[in-house]
Amino acid sequence: MRKKRYVVKQRSRMILRIGILALGALLAIGLVFGLIHLLKSTKKGAKELTELPFTDTANYAYTGSGFLYFQEGKLYYMDIADGRKDTSYKINTDELKLTASPGISVLYHDTAVQIVGSEAPIVVSGKVLGVKCSQAHVAVLREDSAGKTAIVIYDGAGTQTDQMDFDAADLIDFGFSNRQDETLWTLEMDLSASTPVCTITTYNLATKRTTGVINVQNQLTGDVIFTDKSLFLSGTSDLIRYTLAGSSEVYRISVYGWKLADSSIGESPILLYKQRGGSNSILKLYTVPEGDVGSAAISTVHPPEGALAEFLIKGKLMIYTPTAAYTYSAAGKLLSRDDLPIEIDGAKKLSDNHIMLSKEGKLYISVTK
Asked: What is the pLDDT of residues 335-352, one digit of tens each?
């Protein structure tokens, strides 16, 4: 369980030791700005696609408006909508990991983290296990030599602002609110009792305060969804709604035998569920209320033959087959079928605005309407 939380007002002195860290040199040497017109458009069709300049084996990260990726000794940024924003950085290695949000981009390896645009790299005491970004903060999960884990919080300039310590066996996951605010959540699991107890804790990084603690017994949870009014948890047995302020449970809806696949947050949250066990012959759409009664509107959809991927875009269900994109309403009604300009072998939702399609290793972007 989480043991302590404290604020560090001064940047760690170890950051001054950048001479021993190669990561800072990677971004400091050979910074190149210019236009890199690498986009290639496919033939026009019902869904016009843009081919990306890297393949599915590349080291890349989606930023919300474009991509960071390594290629031939350089780190590139490619903007999907505006090629004038394309940028390249000459580096000496591509043995780095990438993660990004619409507000912050980060490069990291086992012992250091570099926030793109900050003056100095962050030297991490211990091993970096993972990094996640919000609009204005970076959360670094580290493990020290004693096996203890901590989430260390930095602002966009690389200054440490907070830290949460955990027992290594307890922390299962962490992330930021899908509302693009500065809410961090952590998921811990206690297996010492006869039945597992999952604890979800939320923090407001802007105010440096804990905003909620939720304990769920007798089932496993892992999917955390935020709206302006609610926090939804989807577990192995129930979908549970909590108030955003105070984290009080409001209602439960049974989802036993189903697993959450995607969500779309609009006027009414819509949740996509698939059958547990790998069968995708039936999909369920839950339109859930944010009042006191858990009377969800549930509709079912039978995917077309050959379906490759299913996800929610702007309140509608989209299903991709190798040759077409199908759009359904939240009530499960087929609204349209659009032929694709190429035959694909994969599809992935990046955001409500961008879908990534693949064909034999090549990657394409479709901009949603």
From this structure: 999 999 999 999 999 999
Task: State both tokens at 211.
Answer: 């905003």
User: What amino acid occupies position 8?
Assistant: V
Amino acid at 282: I
List the structure tokens of 8. 């560090």
First to last CA, the chain: 44
Question: Is residue 249 within 8 Å of 305, Cβ to Cβ?
Answer: no
Q: Determine what percent of the chain falls in helix, strand and coil, rounding each to the nearest 5.
A: 5, 50, 45
Among candidates 260, 278, 279, which has minimal Cα distance to 270? 260
Closest CA to 104 of 38, 179, 35, 157: 157
Residues 6 or more apart in contact with residue 87 via CB below 8 angstroms? 32, 33, 34, 36, 76, 77
User: For the chain, which ranges sit under pLDDT 70?
Assistant: 1-47, 94, 168-169
Rg of the chain's alpha carbons, rounded to an integer? 22
φ and ψ at residue 22, rounded to 5 degrees:
-75, -25
CA dihedral 354, 43, 323, 332 (to 10 degrees): 40
Q: Is the Cα torsion angle 308, 310, 313, 316 positive or negative in sign?
A: positive
Tokens of 26: 């990677």
Q: What is the pLDDT of residue 94?
A: 65
User: Which pair of structure tokens corresponds to residue 288?
Assistant: 């859930």
